[in-house]
Automatic annotation (TrEMBL):
<dbReference type="Pfam" id="PF05362">
    <property type="entry name" value="Lon_C"/>
</dbReference>
<keyword id="KW-0472">Membrane</keyword>
<dbReference type="InterPro" id="IPR001478">
    <property type="entry name" value="PDZ"/>
</dbReference>
<keyword id="KW-1133">Transmembrane helix</keyword>
<feature type="transmembrane region" description="Helical">
    <location>
        <begin position="103"/>
        <end position="124"/>
    </location>
</feature>
<dbReference type="InterPro" id="IPR020568">
    <property type="entry name" value="Ribosomal_Su5_D2-typ_SF"/>
</dbReference>
<dbReference type="InterPro" id="IPR036034">
    <property type="entry name" value="PDZ_sf"/>
</dbReference>
<feature type="transmembrane region" description="Helical">
    <location>
        <begin position="7"/>
        <end position="26"/>
    </location>
</feature>
<protein>
    <submittedName>
        <fullName>PDZ domain-containing protein</fullName>
    </submittedName>
</protein>
<dbReference type="Pfam" id="PF13180">
    <property type="entry name" value="PDZ_2"/>
</dbReference>
<feature type="domain" description="PDZ">
    <location>
        <begin position="223"/>
        <end position="284"/>
    </location>
</feature>
<keyword id="KW-0812">Transmembrane</keyword>
<dbReference type="InterPro" id="IPR014721">
    <property type="entry name" value="Ribsml_uS5_D2-typ_fold_subgr"/>
</dbReference>
<dbReference type="InterPro" id="IPR008269">
    <property type="entry name" value="Lon_proteolytic"/>
</dbReference>
<feature type="transmembrane region" description="Helical">
    <location>
        <begin position="46"/>
        <end position="66"/>
    </location>
</feature>
<feature type="transmembrane region" description="Helical">
    <location>
        <begin position="131"/>
        <end position="151"/>
    </location>
</feature>
<feature type="transmembrane region" description="Helical">
    <location>
        <begin position="78"/>
        <end position="97"/>
    </location>
</feature>
Length: 453
């Protein structure tokens, strides 16, 4: 193998180091590419394809090596086989890297195979001593960059134009947006040794010890993707109702969320049961259930609950006891929440961003963007709006993690206002003192502030 072939392999390994560092520090350039038409998160979609340089280098190296070996009379069959494996693995990696989110596990497996075989091929060419020196040096660099540590790291990410991310498929008049609406992301991932350097040199990079029962990467990815999908559907429903387009959320009763040990419901009801009637009185909302219990039931009475359990309807008798905090209030010993489904078949076109895997924290700002698309005029009034928080079925804006990192990311932009759940106001102000932070509890609070300003 000539030096020219080795250079292609070395180039691929250098590309890995550059790609890993770029991934870990991808948030830093965010405020330098910022407009309603193009934000950094969209640019990343194109920059990502630079990683294809790695398998292309290895493929070229393998092809060149095989051509050279063809000319040799006494070529080693093992050496030829190694380069064929490298060529096949590089071609496969090139293919799966074009769809990274769909083939994440396949990409990792193929990548590991390619690295191992290339390392063997280089060692075979250079000899045991020199090959070992190169391998150990590169392994040390990669361990610094990618060795698991038992910690998680959280750090600022970037903003995301919600009107670019999601577009409702509805008949509406074209409107000219004067401002724009940003959600904001925060990155959380397993920490590597180099993250201790980032903690010392970069703002708001935080390490936390991983929990013993924390799910793996694949399970976590599946969970955050599902949460993103749920948040998108809720955002459509809330925006639809707030825009006066009709009912989108249908209430099905009261769901049992938790059962107190030793209570009358323990062993009788199950978490997930949906109560649809009490003593034959139809119940649709949690408030209706609590009101009925207070008005018509005395502590110590038995009540008949009509319950939907999976696909079955059951009548179940449950006793009551007096509440600890109120002597006249009967309780069953359960925590309840509204059960509902979204009855809205509304088309939604979503952009796919490599840097936005999932999660529900964009829900409130997505609701605002969809509301903007469903109503006349420009809800932004020419302002650059940013915010974070989940959207709940009743219009509440829920608390999210990473408030300091998100505030810092927004503070690096020219946003006129940053909406956060009320409980996160102080953390946001501490992280970005110059930022106009506004605490909100409900979606209506956001609309009210925009109307006044």
């Amino acid at each position: 193998m000539r030096k020219s072939s080795l250079r292609w392999y070395y180039g691929g390994f250098i590309g890995i180091v550059v790609a890993v560092l770029a991934f870990q520090l991808i948030w830093l350039p965010a405020p330098y590419v910022l407009s309603p038409q193009l934000e950094w998160i969209e640019v990343i979609n194109w920059l990502y394809y630079a990683v294809l340089f790695i398998p292309i280098c290895w493929l070229l190296g393998a092809v060149q090596s095989l051509r050279q070996l063809k000319k040799e009379a006494n070529k080693s069959k093992l050496k030829v086989a190694l380069h064929y494996v490298i060529a096949a693995a590089s071609a496969a990696l090139l293919l799966v890297l074009t769809q990274p989110l769909q083939y994440l596990i396949a990409a990792l497996i193929t990548f590991v195979i390619a690295v191992l075989v290339i390392a063997i091929a280089i060692g075979y060419e250079l000899g045991i001593k020199r090959g070992a020196i190169y391998a150990l040096g590169y392994a040390a660099i990669m361990l610094l960059l990618l060795c698991p540590t038992g910690y998680n790291v959280t750090y600022p990410a970037m903003t995301m134009n919600m009107n670019s991310y999601a577009k409702l498929i509805v008949e509406q008049e074209e409107t000219t947006e004067q401002g724009w609406i940003d959600g904001v992301l925060v990155f959380e991932r397993p920490a590597f040794p180099i993250d201790w350097l980032y903690v010392k040199t970069l703002p708001l990079v935080e390490l936390q010890k991983r929990q013993a029962n924390e799910p793996g990467i694949s399970e976590t990815y599946s969970q955050v993707v599902q949460m993103k999908q749920d948040a998108n559907q809720l955002a459509i429903a809330i925006a639809w109702e707030q825009a006066g387009r009709g009912d989108a959320i249908q209430y099905d009763g009261v769901q049992v969320a938790a059962i107190m040990e030793g209570s009358p419901s323990d062993g009788v009801l199950q978490a997930g049961d949906v109560i649809i009637a009490v003593n034959d009185s139809r119940i649709q909302h949690r408030d209706e259930f609590l009101s009925y219990m207070t008005r018509y039931v005395t502590p110590g009475d038995d009540v008949m609950l009509t319950v939907r359990r999976q696909d079955d309807i059951k009548d179940i008798i449950v006793g009551t006891v007096v509440a600890d905090d109120e002597t006249n209030r009967p309780i069953l010993g359960i925590a309840v929440q509204d059960a509902y489904h979204i009855a809205l078949e509304q088309g939604l076109s979503l952009a796919a961003y490599i840097a936005h895997a999932g999660g529900p924290s964009h829900g409130a700002m997505l609701t605002l963007a969809l509301y903007d698309q469903l109503t006349e005029g420009d809800v932004t009034k020419g302002l650059h709006i940013a915010g974070t928080g989940t959207i709940e079925y009743d219009g509440r804006i829920g608390m999210v993690g990473g408030i300091p990192q998100k505030a810092y990311a927004v503070g690096r932009t020219d946003a006129d206002v940053f909406f956060v759940p009320l409980a996160g106001v102080e953390a946001a102000k501490a992280a970005a003192p110059h930022l106009n932070v506004v605490g909100v509890e409900r979606f209506e609070d956001v609309l009210s502030w925009l109307l006044q300003h």
